[in-house]
Amino acid sequence: MTRMRQIVDNCYACDPRIKAFNEDRKKRKLEAKLAKQEAYRQEQEALRLQKEEEERIRKEEEEKRIQQEKEKAEAEKKERQKQNKLLKGERKKVRDFVKNNKYFCKNEDNVVKAMENMEVLLQGLAIDDLKQLNSLNKNVNEFSKVYNTFMTSHLEAQETKTKENLIKAKQSQEQHKDQNISSDKFSPQDIAILVKAVKIYPPGTVNRWNTIAEYLNQHSAVCKSYVSKDIIQKVKNLQSKEGDDLKTKVNEQAFDNFEKSQKQRIDGVVAGGGISSKDTMNSALIDTPDAAKKKKLPWSAEEQKLLEEGLKRFPQSVGPQRWDEIAKLVGSRSKKDCMRRYKDLVEQIKAKKAKQ
């Protein structure tokens, strides 16, 4: 049996037909394997191309959307500027005409009051109303009639609004009567808002105290019923000894809040870096102003870009809030830092021009 098996094996090894069959079978297997690999490669290549095409389409749509939003915002800005320019022009025409006719006052003692009422009225009138007045400037009697009608309506609306504020103030007092609230309803946050409002609306502003009261009611989270009397009394208190004590208290509270925030930040650093909490607290809270100034990093390209964008977005016409808004946009720099950086850039530009 072993001999027969050996003879069969020799035949398999020596027969060229069997060798050709085995080689052909190996070749077919290899070709099938290569074909399968090529099909897989082509499938992956197709998927990659499809993803790249989808990403390209998505980017194009995103860029198109951003461009459309930019164009829309630019168009809205131009429209607002156009309307503001028209509004200023119409107001100036009305103001000059009323001034030339002595504010339609028979008694000179009432001229100052008439001027104040006119400025408030001009701020409240729409552009269509202003155009209606300017169309009558050739007829003084008709102009005076329409002007007095607008003035009467405005004064009545203002008086109604004042009465509503008084009613709201009384209702607020009744609601807080049982809560043992002190007579001074100004919270530290409201005092900060009041100080800001006093800077925004300086002396000489028309209806200054009513305007500040409305500003405080809009931004306060504690009380919505401030009236001009409350504002005047609080400003007097802030200018007196009581105000000095209150400012000291507010500053101490602000320092306590700063110390808490620094401690929370330092605890996080200690937990992650293994440095001494005591040493870190001392270095964070005992640094002198000179040392803090030395630690200030130079302006990065991103901060410079945000500053330039803020200067374009918030022009000088924004008013006293301009640098506050720019500092918010930059984020990592304070209001004073932004102003200082702007002055430095202006000086550099002037020096460069002088050399040329």
What does it look like?
The protein is mainly α and 356 residues long. The protein contains 14 helices and no strands. Helix 2 runs parallel beside helix 4.
Helix content: over 70%
Put simply, the count of helices is 14
User: Could you give a short account of the major beta sheet?
Assistant: none
Judged by helices, strands and strand pairing, the structural class is: mainly alpha
CA-CA gap between termini: 111 Å
Total beta strands: 0
Which percent band covers the strand fraction? Answer: under 5%
Shape: elongated
Average pLDDT number: 79
- Helix-strand pattern: HHHHHHHHHHHHHH
Uncertain segments are 178-183, 272-295
Features:
356 residues, elongated, mainly alpha, 0% strand, single chain
Please outline what is shown here.
It is built from 14 helices and no strands. With 356 residues, the chain is mostly helical.
Topology, element by element:
Blueprint: H1 2-14, H2 16-100, H3 111-124, H4 127-134, H5 140-175, H6 188-200, H7 208-219, H8 228-239, H9 241-273, H10 277-285, H11 289-294, H12 301-313, H13 322-330, H14 335-355
